[in-house]
Amino acid sequence: MFQPQNFLVEAVNKQEIEQVRVALSTYLSKNPTNEQNEVLQAAEYAESRLSEPLWVVHDGLYIEKDSGKWTKDYLGQLKSDLRYNFSKERFEFIIEVGKKVRALKGNFPLAPVRSVVQPAGQPMRQPAVTQLSSEPVKLQAAAQVPSQPVVPAVSPSAIKTTTVPTRVVDAGKPNTKWLVIAGLGGIAILGVALFLLTRNHK
Fold first, then answer.
1. Which of 7, 104, 138, 199 is the most buried (most CB within 10 A)?
2. Would the pTM count as exceeding 0.70?
3. How many CB atoms neighbour CB 28 within 10 A?
4. Using CB atoms within 10 A of its CB, is residue 106 exposed (0-12), middle (13-18) or buried (19+)?
5. First vs last Cα of the chain: how many Å apart?
6. 49-83 confidence digits (pLDDT tens)
7. Cβ(63)–Cβ(25) under 8 Å?
């Protein structure tokens, strides 16, 4: 037995013709293939309880009769046209197109489930786990490290040692040669100064 949805019952009780048409369009969207004749029964329910006509005169807009040209886009165009011209011809035609292009997913049979019987006394076999190889990761990491130049190994015996002579200066002992020269120079200067002083007094 047909049980109308609450939104349709409320629209019919208010005698709001536009809300009733919107409610019937909702039925078309939810049940495009008219399963269990639900959509047509909803239209009959509303039509029998409205005080004004539910349908309008068809506007004569072309309707494609070739089912090979019916697509989901064409179905959407028909629903859009229904908003502006809610004719019974267009409403029923939308149902026919919906049966072809919008088949319900529940109509496809499910694949049978195969059961596995484990012999008595044998341990339960665990499913094999495929271990991913880490080799590609290693190769990728190696590719990211820049190559370094190879330095050949040199044995200690092949290395030549060169001795550089160094001059050691003992900073604690004064250089007597330079001290003598400095002393003689001082005496000569003192002598010249005395000579000049004596000459000036004469």
1. 7
2. no
3. 21
4. exposed
5. 163
6. 999 999 999 999 999 999 999 999 999 999 999 99
7. no
